[in-house]
Design goal:
With about 130 residues, this protein is an alpha+beta fold. The protein has a single domain, classed as Pantoate--beta-alanine Ligase, Chain: A,domain 2, CATH 3.30.1300. About 50% of the residues lie in helices and about 30% in strands. The chain has 2 helices and 5 strands, in the order H-H-E-E-E-E-E. Strands 1-2-3-4-5 form a 5-stranded antiparallel beta sheet. A hairpin with a 2-residue loop joins strand 3 (about 95-105) and strand 4.
Length: about 130
């Protein structure tokens, strides 16, 4: 009887180590899952900020085009800074205003087609482009 008890002396330690490794594996998997969800949420939020910055740039471009029909956009290399992001506005002779909004790592671009006729600026389309 004494030999049977002695041969099972390390079994509790092996079981405890096995459960500890399993617990750590589950905790690590949960931490990785949470981190990936936080990263995706952050990327989505940055994209939303970049979109709204681009929309602000479009509105600024429309306002400046109303005041000066020959407005050509922001000077090269000189973006407008809005709430921690930046926007570059450009216009074309066809009445297209393009705004590229940047916030941290996200970039969004909006394009508006306008027609200037008899002193009135009319918006024909407003869309996000890639």
């Amino acid at each position: 009887m004494k030999k049977i008890i002695e041969s099972q002396a390390g079994q509790a330690l092996v079981t405890l180590l096995f459960l500890a490794v399993m617990g750590m594996t589950i905790a690590l998997a949960a931490a990785v899952f949470i981190f990936q969800n936080m990263q995706a949420s952050s990327d989505t939020q940055q994209g939303i900020y970049a979109y709204y910055i681009a929309e602000s740039g479009i509105e600024e471009g429309i306002l400046r085009m109303l005041r000066n029909p020959a407005y050509s956009g922001t000077p090269p290399g000189q973006p407008l800074y809005i709430n921690g992001g930046s926007v570059v506005i450009s216009t074309s002779s066809g009445g297209i205003i393009t705004a590229v909004g940047t916030y941290q790592n996200s970039v969004r671009q909006i394009q508006v087609k306008t027609v200037y006729n008899n002193g009135m600026l009319t918006i024909q389309s407003w869309k996000e482009v890639n």
